[in-house]
């Protein structure tokens, strides 16, 4: 089955297998520094050299340490990648975050990200979590203001329902949604359908989570002679042309395996 391997946001054509840094660049519980900074930088650079041009991070990863590492890793390739980060989720202990979508906090968050990433403008900025205590329209209204100020190029929302997305769209141009999606986790199919119909990027986080697999998935991968990671990434490539997956890894072998998913030709 022939699939389109790129998706365009603005004037930037993105290869549909990107790189997510949530686990690759932080310690256990998405807390603290990476265990092997030099290796992670090496793998990130290898990914870019092999065509990956969408890198995703967040201020809550670490917190802050992921953005610092990503900035160092991609410095030689600054103009070759679309760099995405997120704000609005506060990391307060290992494995735990809380939403903060107050406009004042979001300004603090984006100014911090700009400094850590050594940017004047962030390519893609996501509202990481919807704050139940703040109307999403207020949070997105703040991001729209930051966009007018030149601090954000493209605006996205993460972990949202169709209703929340529509509310966000009432105050800002939303160019990407980042939600969970994988071969086994299809709870956001309605969001994928909406974004597809409106030519909005759907960035699939947790695309190859081990706990998503069952015996049928393992059997399908074995039957096709591919890994379960490749099964999921190939499925995502075929699922909808606006889906961009962001698997993360600290292994060059796993990186090569993930990118080989472009060449997997199976029918689902």
Notes on the protein architecture:
The structure is a single chain. Helix content is 37%, strand content 21%. The chain has nine helices and twelve strands. The chain has one domain (13-261): TIM Barrel, CATH 3.20.20. With 268 residues, the chain is an alpha/beta fold. α1 packs across α2, α3 crosses α4 (136-148) and α4 packs across α5 (162-169). It starts with 5 loop residues before the first strand and ends in a 9-residue tail after the last helix. The strands form three sheets. It has an eight-stranded parallel sheet.
Fill in the CATH topology: TIM Barrel
Overall number of domains: 1
CATH superfamily: NADP-dependent oxidoreductase domain
Q: Which strand-content bin applies to the residues?
A: 15-25%
Q: Which CATH architecture would you pick? A: Alpha-Beta Barrel
How is the biggest beta sheet arranged?
Answer: 8 strands, parallel
Order of helices and strands: EEEHEHEEEHEHEHEHEHHEH
Q: Tell me, what's the shape?
A: globular
Oligomer: single chain
Considering the chains and any ligands shown, give keywords for the structure.
TIM Barrel, 268 residues, single chain, alpha/beta, two-stranded antiparallel sheet, eight-stranded parallel beta sheet
């Amino acid at each position: 089955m022939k699939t389109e391997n790129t998706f365009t946001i603005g004037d930037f054509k993105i290869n549909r297998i990107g790189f997510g840094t949530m686990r690759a660049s932080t310690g256990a519980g998405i807390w603290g520094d990476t265990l092997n900074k030099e290796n992670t930088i090496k793998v990130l650079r290898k990914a870019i050299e092999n065509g990956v041009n969408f890198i995703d991070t967040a201020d809550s990863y670490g917190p802050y340490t992921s953005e610092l590492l990503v900035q160092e890793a991609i410095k030689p390739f600054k103009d070759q990648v679309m760099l995405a980060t997120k704000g609005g989720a506060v990391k307060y202990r290992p494995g735990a975050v809380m939403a903060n979508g107050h406009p004042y906090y979001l300004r603090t968050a984006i100014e911090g990200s700009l400094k850590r990433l050594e940017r004047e403008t962030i390519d893609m900025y996501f509202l990481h979590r919807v704050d139940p205590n703040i109307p999403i329209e207020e949070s997105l209204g703040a991001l729209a203001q930051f966009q007018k100020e030149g601090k954000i190029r493209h605006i996205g929302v993460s972990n949202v329902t169709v209703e929340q997305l529509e509310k966000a769209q009432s105050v800002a141009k939303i160019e990407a949604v980042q939600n969970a999606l994988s071969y086994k986790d299809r709870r956001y199919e309605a969001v994928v359908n909406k974004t597809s119909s409106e030519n909005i990027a759907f960035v699939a986080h947790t695309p190859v989570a081990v706990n998503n697999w069952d015996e049928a998935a393992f059997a399908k991968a074995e039957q096709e002679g591919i890994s379960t990671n490749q099964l999921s990434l190939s499925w995502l490539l075929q699922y909808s042309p606006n889906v961009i997956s962001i698997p993360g890894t600290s292994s060059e072998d796993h990186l090569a395996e993930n990118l080989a998913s472009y060449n997997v030709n199976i029918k689902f």
